[in-house]
Amino acid sequence: MSASSRREFLFGAVALIGAGALLDRARPWAALMSVDRRGRAALRLSGVMSERGSAQAVGAAFLRDVAPYGTLGRLVDSLAAEVPVTTTQTDDDLRRALAARVAEDFADGRWVELDGWLVALTEARLCGIVALVDG
Predict the structure, then answer these.
(1) Under a CB-based contact definition with an 8 Å cutoff, are residues 126 and 55 in contact?
(2) pTM of the entire structure?
(3) pLDDT tens, N- to C-terminus, the chain (135 residues)
(4) Distance CA 25, CA 39 (A)
(5) CA 83 to chain centre
(6) Burial of 70 from C-beta contacts in 10 A (0-12 / 13-18 / 19+)
(7) Do 97 and 83 meet the contact criterion of CB atoms below 8 Å apart?
(8) Cα-flanking dihedrals φ and ψ of residue 17, to 5°?
(9) SS3 of 76-101
């Protein structure tokens, strides 16, 4: 091996090690993990809704009138902050937690008017998730 090719090899090896160290610090895969976590939570949340057509209509109205810039990630994050979505809870557990939060929303005056209907903020966000997942 000539001195020139040895130098190129060493330079390349050092560059790869440096790039690996930078990638480890930057952790670009963390964003993908966050998207995947949100996606699973969105599917889980939307899956507990039985009346899909009604949920889509309410969700579309919510996204149109109240949260026109609402994204799936934002809706999932805001809802999951108040009603944790875990892999250990059953669908019935999640439904009960959501129903309790809906009752709290009405008690606290956290509701929105959508096409003449008063809808708890939790339920409106949940329907927005359904509209985005199914749409």
Answers:
(1) yes
(2) 0.70
(3) 555 566 665 555 555 565 455 545 555 444 433 445 678 888 899 888 888 999 999 999 999 999 877 889 999 999 999 998 888 889 999 999 999 999 999 999 999 999 899 999 999 999 999 999 988
(4) 25
(5) 13
(6) buried
(7) yes
(8) -65, -45
(9) HHHHHHHCCCCCCCCHHHHHHHHHHH
